[in-house]
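Colleagues,

For the teaching module next term, I've prepared a clean inverse folding example: a structure given as tokens, and then the sequence designed for it. I'd like students to try predicting residues themselves before seeing the answer, so please don't circulate the second half yet.
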């Protein structure tokens, strides 16, 4: 049936006493259909999409004391005009790569795009089935007709609306990215920008935006601009950062394309002078590991390392940095993760191993992934049998040849600089080390609270990120949705 339709059903009753008469009653569970009875005829009215069980009971006319009843049940399926049935899902493979606007040509690896001509409804149906299969809280999604809206809007519906004990959204990590941009950024750190990471210290008026760090050889470090760590941004294209409109501020601070020119009034740390600079966005290749150095103290050498992103190029840079710290015999490490929003979990495992060293970490569990209750023994994305992930002791081929032994600092404690942008794989470093009793001392602010992860999935040129698993450490702990707080 289709929502809004009616269906008439005639009931036939068979009795040994062919001359007997009968009455029937009918009931329906839920609100999918309503049922009315007229003699031996039923009228079913389709109220909403879904499935309903209808029970019909026939009673003979032998009198109340001797009446005999018999019941029969049947299932009614009600769909919308689009074919949607609430709670009934097809295999996501049926809809994969059927696109409203298919891509042509080849991808970054030279392979032909898999796209075929389809519709927005196909793209939404894929999202619906894929989410129902792999989303960690699939049973908290309000199942909606995929014909309701465009694909970006529909994807926003496919998540839980629950909140944590502190009142923040349970799922804060549901987003999309253009596939080509995502691949460029994750593989090589390439994106459009100025080469300055802006830290929003206060996001509501009176706002406070500072430069967290800069990339070498970028517009932010060019002659005449020379932004420093801690430089305060006062105006963007004439709009006050303190209390101006958010949209023009975001457009200037976070350009979407290369070639955009914007003007900034800035104030350097320790200076009363306000100066005006112009920057034009360009292709920026980020340096995920910066400012590694050794600081001599009365208690021995201390290493410092700014680690900004778990991207592929970080593998080589982290190994090089840790080797230098190892050669300096550092007795402590300050790991700056304030601006690190995560990335490849395998890099987190490598760095955690290099901090703890082989005696503490080799053969130990770094993390264990837990998917939804449909996938308790097999990873639904890779098809691999689920087993704990050990601390990674060798390179894996992201930017170094695989199989090389990693260096180790053999530290029993580490100082981590943290903030609200310390997220995901960065928090996994903290949790993984605590799981093997390395003392992780947090300094700064509470981390973002993301013990969850995902396998990014491309469809029709958009990469979708939906929470698919929760990570726990060797002690089985992973309940930090409200973040890790320095104590």
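(Answer key — instructors only)
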């Amino acid at each position: 049936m289709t929502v809004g339709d009616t269906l008439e059903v005639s009931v036939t009753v068979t009795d040994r006493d062919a001359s007997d008469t009968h009455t029937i009653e009918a009931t329906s569970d839920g609100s999918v259909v309503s049922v009315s009875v007229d003699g031996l005829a039923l009228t079913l009215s389709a109220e909403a999409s879904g499935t309903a069980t209808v029970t019909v009971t026939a009673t003979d006319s032998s009198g109340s004391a001797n009446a005999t009843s018999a019941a029969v049940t049947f299932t009614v399926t009600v769909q919308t005009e689009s074919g949607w049935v609430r709670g009934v899902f097809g295999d996501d493979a049926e809809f994969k790569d059927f696109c409203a606007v298919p891509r042509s040509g080849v991808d970054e690896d030279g392979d032909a795009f898999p796209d075929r001509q389809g519709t927005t409804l196909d793209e939404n149906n894929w999202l619906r089935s894929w989410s129902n299969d792999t989303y960690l809280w699939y049973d908290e999604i309000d199942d909606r007709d995929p014909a309701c809206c465009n694909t970006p809007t529909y994807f926003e519906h496919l998540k839980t609306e629950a909140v944590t004990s502190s009142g923040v959204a349970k799922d804060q990590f549901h987003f999309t990215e253009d596939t080509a941009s995502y691949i460029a950024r994750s593989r090589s750190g390439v994106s459009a920008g100025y080469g300055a990471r802006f830290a929003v210290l206060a996001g509501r008026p009176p706002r406070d935006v500072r430069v967290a760090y800069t990339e070498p050889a970028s517009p932010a470090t060019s002659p005449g601009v020379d932004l420093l760590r801690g430089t305060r941004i006062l105006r963007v294209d004439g709009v006050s950062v303190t209390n101006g409109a958010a949209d023009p501020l975001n457009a200037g601070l976070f350009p979407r394309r290369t070639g955009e020119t914007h003007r900034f009034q800035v104030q350097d740390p320790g200076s009363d002078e306000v100066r005006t600079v112009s920057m034009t966005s360009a292709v920026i290749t980020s340096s995920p590991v910066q400012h590694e150095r050794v600081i001599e103290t009365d208690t021995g050498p201390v290493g410092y390392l700014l680690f900004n992103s778990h991207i592929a190029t970080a593998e080589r840079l982290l190994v090089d940095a840790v080797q230098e710290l190892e050669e300096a015999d550092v007795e402590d490490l300050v790991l700056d993760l304030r601006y690190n929003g995560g990335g490849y979990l395998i890099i987190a495992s490598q760095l955690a191993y290099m901090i703890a060293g082989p005696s503490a970490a080799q053969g130990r569990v770094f993390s264990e992934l837990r998917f939804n209750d449909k996938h308790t023994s097999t990873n639904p994305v890779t098809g691999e049998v689920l087993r704990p992930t050990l601390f990674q002791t060798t390179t894996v081929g992201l930017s170094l040849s695989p199989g090389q032994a990693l260096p180790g600092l053999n530290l029993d404690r580490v100082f981590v600089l943290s903030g609200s942008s310390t997220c995901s794989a960065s928090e996994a470093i903290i949790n993984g080390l605590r799981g093997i009793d390395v003392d992780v001392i947090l300094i700064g602010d509470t981390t973002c609270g993301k013990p969850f992860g995902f396998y990014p999935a491309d469809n029709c040129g958009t990469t979708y990120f939906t929470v698919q698993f929760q990570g726990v450490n060797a002690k089985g702990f992973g309940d930090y949705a409200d973040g890790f707080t320095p104590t």
